[in-house]
Design goal:
CATH architecture: Up-down Bundle
Distance between the termini: 43 Å
Strand content: under 5%
Radius of gyration: 21 Å
Largest sheet: 2 strands, antiparallel
Structural class: mainly alpha
Shape: globular
Order of helices and strands: HHHHHHHHHHHHHHHHEEHHH
Number of helices: 19
CATH topology: Amino acid/polyamine transporter I
CATH class: Mainly Alpha
Number of strands: 2
Oligomer: single chain
Strand order of the largest sheet: 1-2
Helix content: over 70%
Number of domains: 1
Length: about 450
């Protein structure tokens, strides 16, 4: 067993937690989770979601970290070597390839959306410091952005440059240095926004909006939604956590850091809701539907009317940009690590090549918003089709196979050693059989829900 990765190592347990949390906390986490919580029973949904984190999210999170740390290489090569050592087929490395390809596809359109947040942060910066006019008609402003391929390509490119500038520098000088700055920045911005929201006079309503339990909402559909959110919010199935696990020191307790990542990720999502909804309630904005329409067309109306609204708007879109940035570097890292191991090229060169290919792939999503808007694939526009294949299909299938690999292919000796040799037998057996049986069954339910089977 290797004790260190050729790519470098996290300097501490805290650095891994911040990096993994940065991977998990993304755009959808901040703007989608509060909405689906309020729309699916509030506190009842939160309790069901937390149960799903325990029974679906954490077992796969632990599994990815185990595979990464045991292999100490890129996800593709770690799976290949661990499968060989376990006497299993080399075809298991295909699981690594699937995660890497899914991450590549997701980053291609994710970068486009992240570019929107940079564009809006710039608009508010100009208002705050350069005397630019306020966004009088947010709907028209957003529509004009989507209709302008040149503007979208520019901000998509800026975001990819930001991403590759971190990954190209490696684990210690790039990833760790970035998360040590960006994650505290994200937490500070979030707390500042929360502090302002508490002064609106509608904070209590927002708490009720998010947490008042509506037990009549608990049904099969809500449970499938909670399971899906638990799975996707932790950045599982795309091998990003597996790649980060390869850089985790051997003396760090995996269950403890896994629980810390899940708890921090969930806290960020809930605090984001408490920071956003008081503003929406104050100005009579309906958050129903969530997503881009709420963030880019509805909230700016409130920012125009708020005291210090322009500063709040800039901080809010900066928060979204930082969340997107910490997620994107975790998507670019797995393919970069693999080709560093498999070629004689430098990390910088490989990262630049993959980033350029991702940027080029992202042009399909850019054009689907304007000049190719009439083009559909399976009834979906190009961007939605890419998202459906990568995020809705490939990620849950990847998570299913990760659970099977960790539970059935790896030996009990390996998994117990990596988790915690001193773990009580009952605790280890509980994790093992949840990972082997319950988690795969629940993921199949999620896939069935996505495909419309249930």
């Amino acid at each position: 067993m290797q004790t260190a990765s050729v790519h470098g190592m996290w300097s501490s347990r805290l650095m891994f937690i911040m990096a993994a949390t940065g991977s998990a906390v993304g755009l959808g986490n901040i703007w989608r989770f509060p909405y689906i919580t309020s729309d699916n029973g509030g506190g009842a949904f939160v309790l069901v979601y937390l149960a799903c984190i325990l029974l679906v999210g954490l077992p796969i999170l632990f599994s990815e970290i185990i595979i990464g740390r045991r292999g100490r290489m890129s996800p593709i090569n770690s799976l290949r070597e661990l499968a060989r050592d376990s006497g299993a087929s080399r075809a298991w490395m295909g699981l690594g390839w699937m995660g890497v390809i899914a991450g590549f596809l997701i980053l291609s359109f994710y970068s486009v959306v992240a570019g929107w947040t940079l564009h809006y942060a710039w608009l508010y910066f100009k208002q705050l410091f350069l005397g630019a006019e306020a966004i009088a008609d947010p709907g028209a402003t957003f529509g004009a952005l989507l209709a302008n391929p040149g503007e979208l390509i520019f901000w998509h490119g800026v975001f990819m440059v930001m991403t590759v500038s971190v990954v190209a520098l490696g684990v210690e000088k790039g990833l760790e240095r970035a998360v040590s700055i960006l994650m505290p920045m994200l937490f500070v911005l979030l707390l500042v926004l929360l502090g302002y929201a508490m002064t609106t006079g509608h904070f209590g309503e927002a708490v009720g909006f998010l947490f008042k339990p509506d037990w009549s909402s608990v049904n099969g559909g809500m449970i499938v939604t909670a399971m899906g959110q638990a799975f996707f919010t932790l950045s599982l199935g795309m091998c990003a956590i597996m790649a980060y696990g390869a850089y985790l020191p051997s003396d760090v307790n995996i269950p403890r850091v896994g629980v810390a990542v899940a708890a921090t990720d969930t806290s960020v999502a809930l605090i984001a809701g408490l920071a956003i909804f008081p503003i929406a309630i104050s100005f009579g904005i309906d958050p129903e539907g969530g997503g881009a329409g709420f963030i880019f067309t509805s909230l700016p109306l409130a920012f125009n009317e708020m005291t210090w609204g322009i500063a709040y708007g800039m901080a809010f879109f900066l928060l979204l940009s930082v969340a997107a940035w910490t997620s994107s570097i975790s998507l670019l890292e797995p393919p970069t690590a693999y080709f560093v191991e498999s070629s004689n090229l430098s990390r910088r060169t490989i990262a630049l090549i993959i980033a350029a290919l991702t940027w080029a792939m992202g042009l399909a999503s850019v054009f689907s918003l304007n000049i190719w808007s009439e083009v559909t694939i399976g009834g979906k526009d190009i961007m939605s089709a890419i998202e459906y294949v990568a995020a809705d299909i490939m990620l849950p299938v990847g998570g299913l196979l990760i659970a099977i690999f960790a539970g059935w292919v790896l030996s009990n000796r390996i998994t117990r050693t990596e988790l915690d040799e001193n773990m009580p037998s009952w605790a280890y057996s509980t994790w093992l059989w949840i990972t082997r049986v319950f988690t795969p069954l629940m993921i199949l339910v999620v896939i069935g829900g996505i495909l419309g089977v249930f």
